[in-house]
Design a protein that fits this description.
Helix content: 10-25%
Strand content: 15-25%
Number of domains: 2
Shape: globular
Number of strands: 14
Order of helices and strands: HHHHEEEHEEEEHHHEEEEEEEHH
Largest sheet: 7 strands, antiparallel
Strand order of the largest sheet: 1-2-3-7-6-5-4
Radius of gyration: 22 Å
Length: about 425
């Protein structure tokens, strides 16, 4: 069974396992969870270019994004790939199947036409009428070693969050990669070019390079390539993937895809973007809070207004610290209550939890400490710290730079009363 079919079946089984109460929580966090997954860009990449990143919806809850331990440096999702996610074809703002006017063989022919000189074998393909959407993947050999190359076509709301997130470079605080650029082209299209690795902990030397473009009319072309015959489980067969970034750019921006893209139904308009939280950004709040601790900050990064990162180093090794702010749901107030059911309750009405656990991203010897507070207004504040510069890097010290007591102070600070008016 192709990878995307296996994944779809697994997700259907997962969905069937939710209780009605669980579904309410999933619905409440669905859009936020999907956006967080896309922004972190540490999600699924398997079998083919169109492997579905549906962990952004129901799976976001199942994998911990919306539940216990979901905060901090990269969240609670434990995923194996360091590749930005392929677009989820079952997103409300995206539809994947057309009339079938362009067949799998025709798409394969266009793909071969756009590739440099070489041979394409082990081809898997779908046309515009095939579920879950058109794609072609195969093993390309230019005489310097075989590498898997593939692409997928879909339609998105060009003004929606999915389009924005698909061409936004990930934070290096959560994902290690060699380079990433995002630019707006002359025709108004937005393009991301990414050079990274299949595994964030570099357990293998498999590289994954990617080009993703979103056009003003909502065409999304997403191409990936590897320096091995398979994404996972095959030895490296060449130093780098077979196509240069310039060739990947030419591939995804080619007008030869337009007949197939035009055969796909236009994506529905995404629901209105949630208003951004007002006030200081999380990274600025965290830096201000730590300004008197006397620990040098060697790097800072952010992922929107609600998630900020600092890397500290007082001479004992780098330590990642993050602050994540998760406002309560307007539609489903009290969505974090179950997470804090057994938490310590403070006199000011806050609830607080602390945890010490192993890191989740494969970094050797990494530990993850966290302090979480639930404010009286339902906002969740999560402070996390690691004994490494990222979860996927090897530990650089025995313990994080901040003590658990200091992290608890940060999570329950009076700053939150002034920031939220409570």
């Amino acid at each position: 069974m192709p990878f995307e079919d296996e994944l779809g079946e697994a997700l259907r089984r997962t969905g069937d396992g939710f209780t009605s109460e669980g579904r309410d929580l999933v619905d409440a966090g669905e859009r936020r969870g999907r956006r967080m997954v896309a922004r972190r860009r540490a999600a699924v990449a398997g079998g083919s270019v169109l492997a579905l990143a549906l962990i952004g919806s129901a799976g976001a809850y199942a994998n911990g994004l919306l539940g216990t331990g979901g905060g901090g440096g990269g969240g609670g999702v434990n995923v194996a790939s360091s590749v930005p996610p392929a677009p989820p074809t079952q997103d409300p703002g995206m539809r994947g199947v057309g009339s079938g006017a362009v067949s799998a063989d025709e798409l394969t022919g266009v793909f071969k036409q756009l590739l440099p000189q070489g041979a394409l074998s082990n081809i898997e393909a779908r046309g515009t009428g095939d579920q879950p959407g058109p794609m072609v993947t195969g093993v390309f050999d230019d005489g310097e070693g075989k590498g898997r190359v593939g692409f997928g076509l879909s339609r998105v709301d060009p003004k929606g969050e999915m389009a924005e997130d698909m061409v936004k470079c990930p934070s290096k605080a959560t994902l290690k990669y060699d380079s990433c650029s995002s630019e707006k082209l002359a025709d108004g299209s937005r393009l991301m070019l990414f050079r990274g690795y299949e595994y964030p902990d570099r357990r293998a030397d498999t590289k994954c390079w990617r080009a993703t473009v979103v056009t003003p009319q909502g065409f999304l072309v997403d191409a990936q390539e590897w320096n091995s015959k398979e994404e996972k489980g095959a030895p490296v067969s060449r130093p780098t993937p077979p196509l240069t970034l310039a060739q990947l750019k030419a591939l995804v921006t080619s007008p030869l895809w337009h007949p197939a893209l035009n055969d796909l139904p236009a994506a529905g308009q995404e629901s209105q973007r949630e208003p951004a939280r007002q006030g200081m950004k999380a990274v600025d709040i965290l830096e201000a809070m730590l300004s008197n601790d006397g620990i040098p900050i060697v790097h800072r990064d952010e992922d929107g207004s609600d998630l900020g990162y600092l890397v500290l180093n007082e001479g004992k090794g780098k330590s990642l610290v993050s602050l994540q702010i998760q406002p309560d749901s307007v539609k489903y107030p009290g969505m974090w209550a179950d997470v804090f059911a057994s938490a310590e309750k403070l006199p000011n009405g806050m609830k607080v939890l602390t945890r010490q656990q192993p890191g989740e991203k494969g970094g050797a010897g990494v530990v993850w400490w966290s302090a979480e507070a639930l404010l009286p207004n339902g906002t969740r504040v999560i402070v996390s710290a690691f004994n490494a510069e990222s979860q996927s890097s090897a530990a650089t010290r025995k313990e994080p730079a901040l003590t658990l007591a200091r992290m608890k102070e940060l999570a329950t600070s009076s700053k939150w009363a002034s920031e939220y008016g409570q």
